[in-house]
Amino acid sequence: MASPTPTPPNNRPDALTLEVVELIGEVVARFHEDYEEAAAEHTLTGAQARLLSLLCLEPLPMRRLAQRLKCEPSNVTGIVDRLEARGLVERQSDPADRRVKVAVATEEGRRVARSLRESLRFAREPLAGLSEGERVALRDALRGMLG
Amino acid sequence: MASPTPTPPNNRPDALTLEVVELIGEVVARFHEDYEEAAAEHTLTGAQARLLSLLCLEPLPMRRLAQRLKCEPSNVTGIVDRLEARGLVERQSDPADRRVKVAVATEEGRRVARSLRESLRFAREPLAGLSEGERVALRDALRGMLG
DNA sequence: TTCAGATGCTTCAGTAACTGAAACAACCAT
DNA sequence: ATGGTTGTTTCAGTTACTGAAGCATCTGAA
């Protein structure tokens, strides 16, 4: 009766796992903090920054944006509205299907997104404290977690 | 001589670093998603869940809560209001300084927080896919990043 | 061809998170 | 006591977000 269930992945996290979870939480918190701060430096909210970054890679219809951001389409409308009002994003209607509006980053929008990406110091500075070997180990562990 | 400068933090992120940054971004996204989902299962918002988790460790005055959550005290008022309305948190005035209100988790609040913590599957499940050695390497790399 | 249903976006309540200013009470040092 | 500081709340205003309509457009089948 020492171990009732046969090592289910859900029960009894060992100390090592717990510490890693704790550390990941810390990393998440700092990353977020840094991201919001970088966004604020460009007078953007976090949501606006995320959307703009997505559009910087490729134009996307509103519906896809909602899927990427994991929120309702009606929400995307507002965020795009505000970005459009500032000239960072444009709505183009898709000639192939006139229902869909494709959001596309303007030149200015792409510039802001690039600048934003560069001011994201976190995960660059702290990573610098790691040796090459440690970075490789980190990469492999993260890959393993996500795969 | 092998490394002239102790790895200048600002310039020229190499491919490895970039990939790690990318992976961390992915981990952050999944962690957040999971956290919000776990919170929603308990009819809590993310902010409420974070605050309740803090209080589960120790009672805190409003001001400290604001510092921990990195937001304005006036914001904390609202979040605690809503948690208090649901009996998960209580306000007690500090006898030593009658200005300060100490927020403390109720029994029910602690129970919810515990349950929340347990339903946080992410970073436990994917971690299970890692060998002990990999987990140690991950821990050390994360420690290095945060220290 | 036409029309009923599906799909994409917006609009409209309604809630929560958040900020910054202003009000208040209680503390503290002179 | 008095004046300045500090902890909390209140208030107005913005954004993010959801879910239910609503409108326009597309699509498939009769």
UniProtKB/TrEMBL annotation, chains A, B:
InterPro entries tied to this protein: HTH_MarR-typ (IPR000835), MarR/SlyA-like (IPR039422), Tscrpt_reg_MarR-type_CS (IPR023187), WH-like_DNA-bd_sf (IPR036388), WH_DNA-bd_sf (IPR036390)
Pfam families xref list: MarR_2
Membrane spanning stretches: none
Keywords, sorted A to Z: DNA-binding, Transcription, Transcription regulation
GO biological process: response to stress
The organism's place on the tree of life at top rank: Bacteria
HTH marR-type domain: residues covered: 17-147
Cited SUPFAM superfamilies: Winged helix' DNA-binding domain (SSF46785)
Claim: Iron is one of the keywords in the record: no
GO molecular function: DNA binding; DNA-binding transcription factor activity
Protein known as: MarR family transcriptional regulator
